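Supplementary Methods. Inverse-folding protocol.

Structures were first reduced to a discrete structure-token string of length 221. This string, shown here, constituted the complete conditioning input.
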């Protein structure tokens, strides 16, 4: 490869309440660290709601997963342990004892849209994943969202204005429709240069190999 890093555009379609999205992001970040100097990634987080009809009070995690996927309690426990182990392998901490409810994530996506305009989107996405999966916080609650926005350097007053209005609601819905119309039905969906799709919370090695191949193909910027 040349001395100049290959520029890759990466659209990371995901939901804040998706555990495999948290795993996928940690894996992708490790892969990009390994490719440092060879690849320069332009990362954009795109919205996807797993439960767009979820009410403001949320729903018990166990009840929700059993109802939605028909899991038994034993299957649920097995699945959660597998997620915990996969997270640990890439340095992400899942505390299943704290994550007790599923919440509506639309307002989180509105803040993430704004955070991209402010250059703080990745930091906010990481903070939201930690708040929900590690600390068990309600990432639909405005108080939580305002605190996280402030912690990653966003203007709290502007964040409050956004949450108190319907700011960026149309933009988020438009992005969600765009990816749905282009066949994205599950997340994480990682799209490279608008044409290559990597699905699921893959190990770092899978991301590294795919990104290296795309970078070496000559289509990168």
């Amino acid at each position: 490869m040349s001395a100049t890093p290959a520029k890759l555009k990466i659209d990371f379609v995901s939901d804040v309440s998706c555990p495999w999205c948290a795993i996928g992001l940690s894996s992708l970040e490790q892969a990009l660290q390994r490719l440092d100097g060879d690849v320069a990634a332009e990362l954009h987080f795109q919205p996807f709601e797993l439960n767009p009809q979820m009410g403001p009070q949320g729903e018990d995690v166990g009840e929700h997963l059993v109802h939605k996927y028909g899991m038994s309690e034993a299957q649920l426990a097995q699945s959660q342990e597998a997620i915990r182990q996969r997270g640990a392998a890439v340095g992400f901490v899942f505390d299943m004892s704290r994550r007790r409810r599923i919440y509506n994530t639309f307002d989180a996506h509105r803040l993430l849209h704004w955070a991209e305009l402010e250059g703080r989107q990745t930091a906010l996405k990481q903070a939201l994943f930690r708040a929900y999966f590690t600390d068990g916080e309600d990432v639909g609650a405005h108080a939580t969202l305002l605190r996280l926005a402030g912690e990653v350097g966003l203007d709290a007053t502007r964040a409050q204005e956004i949450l108190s209005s319907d700011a960026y609601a149309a933009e988020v819905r438009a992005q969600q429709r765009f990816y749905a119309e282009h066949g994205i039905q599950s997340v994480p969906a990682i799209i490279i240069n608008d044409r290559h799709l990597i699905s699921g919370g893959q190990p770092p090695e899978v991301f590294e190999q795919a990104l290296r191949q795309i970078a070496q193909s000559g289509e990168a910027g």
